[in-house]
Amino acid sequence: MRIINQVLITGGCGFIGLHLAERLSQDEYRVRLMDNLSSQIHGAVPYLAGASILQAPNVELLRSDVRVRRDWEEALKGVECVIHFAAETGTAQSMYEIERYTNTNVLGTALLMDILANSKHGVKKVILASSRSVYGEGAYECDGCRTVYPDSRSEEQLSSKHWDLLCPTCCGPIQPRATSEDARTRPASIYAATKLAQEDIVRIAGIALGIGTVVFRFQNVYGEGQSLRNPYTGILSIFSNRIRQNLPIYLFEDGEESRDFVHVSDVAKAVALAIESDRAAGMTLNVGSGRPTSVRKIAETLKKSFADRSEPIVSAQYRLGDIRHCYADLSNIASIGFAPEIELEDGLDRFVDWVKTQPVEVDGLERANNELAERGLMAKAAVC
């Protein structure tokens, strides 16, 4: 017998939220979406790409704000499981919009757990979307020192174009390895710091209140429905939007920095498993593909898919707080029955096919980068 019937997805109109809502709706859950429809993501007049799910009889939308107690109280009525996606997500932007990121991510989460601590409710489970960014740099292997966790690269190192890291113990060469959930956490941005704070709030309060909690550390999530107008996050969307406007693709550093790209349908699958089963209760779990891919390869693949013959340009620009490498160890999440199904090549084909059906958005990347450069958080372009 199903123990959860009514779920609340905060940030429910984001592309992960909508994919999850569609999956849960088909599984006959009652789904409530809570979203403030941020103009940065949805536009001044909100546009919800592929949001036909909002017409489903078992899905409802509340336009509300996680920073407002009364909005939470209304949204939680009758809810048995909270999937907390709502957050400000731009790593670079977080470095100068510190109050906004902290208020939304940390205060919003604190309000949720405060209400659960002090009010009558039916919530049995809270599932939090965290981020691989809490690790800072991922795990590395040194021939002599074994597994090591280097600190963030300094301004001095980046400005001298020494992109790769050295062993923090012997200063020898190191190679990236899969990062497990017991790795050292060392946030390198305000965004990452707020995600780690969210984790602690949910975990500690959940134990005290007897509420089951699951923390998912998402890697780089991509897929159909991702905002094409947000210049602060979503590298595939940013690149695609520029390609369609015949604008050059500039690669930070040397273009060889790598990330773990996981398709949104695999993320929705992981969350659904956590809702349906108690096997993940109390766990912190990576969600990714389990393999690294360079930013250069992503750019080249997208250009080929859009039949753009120009080559990506290595700019040698860098942003303070960016990491070099990180990809997920999926050993623990396999224990709850999860394995990624969408290969990157297939996922990119699906993403590109969807992008081609969408209106071209005004490119805001240069404006966003200029904001960083003006604040000393990003090097000015120096094309190699």
Walk me through what this model shows.
The protein has 384 residues and is of the alpha/beta class. It has a single domain (6-374), classed as Rossmann fold. Helix content is 35%, strand content 16%. The longest helix has 21 residues, at 98-118. The N and C termini lie far apart (61 Å). The relative contact order is 0.14.
What would a concise description of this structure say?
With 384 residues, this protein is an alpha/beta fold. The protein contains 13 helices and 16 strands. The chain has one domain: Rossmann fold, CATH 3.40.50.720.
> Mind telling me which CATH architecture this is?
3-Layer(aba) Sandwich
- Share of helix among residues? 25-40%
Mean pLDDT: 92
What is the CA-based Rg, rounded? 20 Å
Number of strands: 16
* CATH fold naming: Rossmann fold
Q: Any low-confidence stretches, pLDDT <50, length ≥5?
A: none
The run of helices and strands is EHEHEHEHHEEEHEHEEHEEEHEEHEHHH
Number of helical segments with 4 or more residues: 13
Question: Approximately how much beta-strand content do the residues carry?
Answer: 15-25%
Strand order of the largest sheet: 3-2-1-4-5-9-14
Q: Quick one: overall form?
A: globular
Cα distance spanning the termini: 61 Å
Largest sheet: 7 strands, parallel
Just give the CATH class: Alpha Beta
The domain count comes to 1
